[in-house]
Amino acid sequence: MSASPRPIAEIAEEIGLLPDEVELHGRHAAKIGLDALERLADRPTGREVVVTAVTPTPMGEGKTATAIGITQALNLQGRRAAVALRQPSMGPLFGIKGGGTGGGLSQLVPAADINLGLTGDIHAIGAAHNLLAAFLDNHLFHGNALGVDADSIDWPRAVDVNDRALRHVRIGLGGPKDGIVRESEFVITVASEVMAILALATSYRDLRERLGRIVPALRADGSAVTADDLHVAGAMAAVLRDALKPNLVQTLEGGPAWVHAGPFANIAHGNSSVLADLVALKTSEIVLTEAGFGADMGAEKFFDIKCRISGIRPAGAVIVVTAQALRLHGGALDISAPDPDAVAAGSVNLAKQVENVLAFGMPAVVAINAYPADSPEEHAAIRQAALAAGARAAVAARHYSEGGAGALELADAVWEMAGAGEPPELRFLYELGEPLTAKIETVARRMYGAEGVDFLPDAERKLARYEALGYGALPVCMAKTHLSLTHDPSIKGRPIGWRLPVRDVRLAAGAGFVIALCGAISRMPGLPSHPAGEAVDIDDAGNVIGLA
Q1: Average pLDDT in the 272-277 region?
Q2: Residue 167, SS3?
Q3: Which of 71, 121, 257, 418 is the most buried (most CB within 10 A)?
Q4: How many folded domains does the chain comprise?
Q5: Rounded to whole angstroms, how far apart are CA atoms 301 and 54?
Q6: Residue 107 sits in the same domain as residue 50
């Protein structure tokens, strides 16, 4: 709150954007018109580095702050660096996690605006999502000319708060004029396929076509009913017209930051928008982007889904680790106190996540997000494990307390990895021509370390149906807990001898992937006993206070 942000128009001019490409939302945020990307097409393309992590503790290990800190450090060194991040959801903001704009001296500003809706993109996504739901139920009410099988409807409502009471609902109650009575559900907006589509679309035409391909239900004969069949995709695209434009804000040290789209990585693909990355890569030498949760989750989807669809070829990955997380994975009873033995034992999780990045042919640098309570012995154990697993370097950084100046050595390692020569060849985990079951098995075995996959009957039936409908060549998006390599959040470290249960699957034809629901994962989180929102308020001047 004490920061004095630069005028965003000034930052936009510095990175080469023209005034008529910059749509101001106040003094410190702007949307960037898509015509900028066309004008910048002949510019050199910068290098992209994805920031991922070990399997995190519930509060996270500081990927966002680390991505911002590295970006600030690179700018201090005279590089033209930018960060591209997801937009925070108000679900975790008011739930257990708090804000999503970094922390300490490695934050984005204006933080309150970014956390509380920014330019309204998430609200537009919710409106577009619910418009399709309304059109579908309205079609049933007015005679169901398309022959929709009501029992096959797989399109919930969406709302951007954590509300477990909406996980299972009955709609249409009240009488004949209130619609068809049926079972339904709500999901959090960031789990909506519309959010995934916004993050992956590369143009207005691509957005419109993806929305039209959404399959919210099937006919009685098993054929797909699309949003285009319901004549609603055009209206959805109109609602999302401004939301498709990337948002430009800034770091606490005045560098460019792109915040656009926010799909969760445990229930969606977990990466910020392709369009934000593409504009950032044309206006910067190097771009740090964040993939949600551990490398088994967001980074796998970054490589196998986002990069595959967009054509982006990354230059490497940063894996964020804290001693606290490895104490947890090593079985420490008190993860806030130094415990070199627990860190050494828990480093098997770090080793697995390094291996996960290397599986894609990508080099990796390990960023030790240093806490004041860490011991030198713990950092030494982390470095030893990281290098033994194949990381290029493992560097401690204090960007939280020192800003960019606290991440200069880490920035050197990242630039050395990404800044010279041709980017490495990206190797996908699987070929699209493989059966859906084989793709799921490959991710489970290679990313999570499972011995195999157990498909429950509903999942088997739906996978066979999707193959028969012609969707078998899509990539897969795994939905599972982020707190373990397995489907069970209580299992830490690097477990062996286990199998992954896939209880259900969902088709996201517009986004372009099939979602496998593993274990008890839910698309609507709940609130803790004392939500973070209890501390949020405004002061007499209207300033937001209490954001964690």
Answers
A1: 98
A2: coil
A3: 71
A4: 3
A5: 15
A6: yes
**CA 451 from centroid of its chain's CA atoms:** 27
122-171 confidence digits (pLDDT tens): 999 999 999 999 999 999 999 999 999 999 999 999 999 999 999 999 99
Domain of 252 in residue numbering reads as: 14-118+245-418
Q: Where does a domain end: 239, 271, 293?
A: 239
Interatomic CA distance for residues 384 and 364, integer angstroms? 14
All residues at 6 or more sequence positions from 408 whose CB lies less than 8 Å from its CB, including other chains: 73, 76, 77
CATH number at residue 458: 3.10.410.10
Segment 163-171 long-range contacts (CB within 8 Å, at least 24 positions apart): 163/524, 163/526, 163/527, 164/524, 164/525, 164/526, 164/527, 166/524, 167/522, 167/524, 171/137
CB atoms within 10 A of CB 544: 16
With vertex at residue 136, the alpha carbon angle to CA 130 and CA 140, rounded to the nearest 5 degrees, is: 145
CA distance linking residue 544 with residue 301, whole number of Å? 34
Amino acid at 123: H
Residue located via tokens 């959010």: 195
Whether the pLDDT of residue 420 is over 80: the answer is: no
Q: Find, among 109, 91, 102, 87, the residue nearest to 11 by Cα.
A: 109
345 and 451 together in one domain: no
Mean pLDDT, range 412-429, rounded to an integer: 93
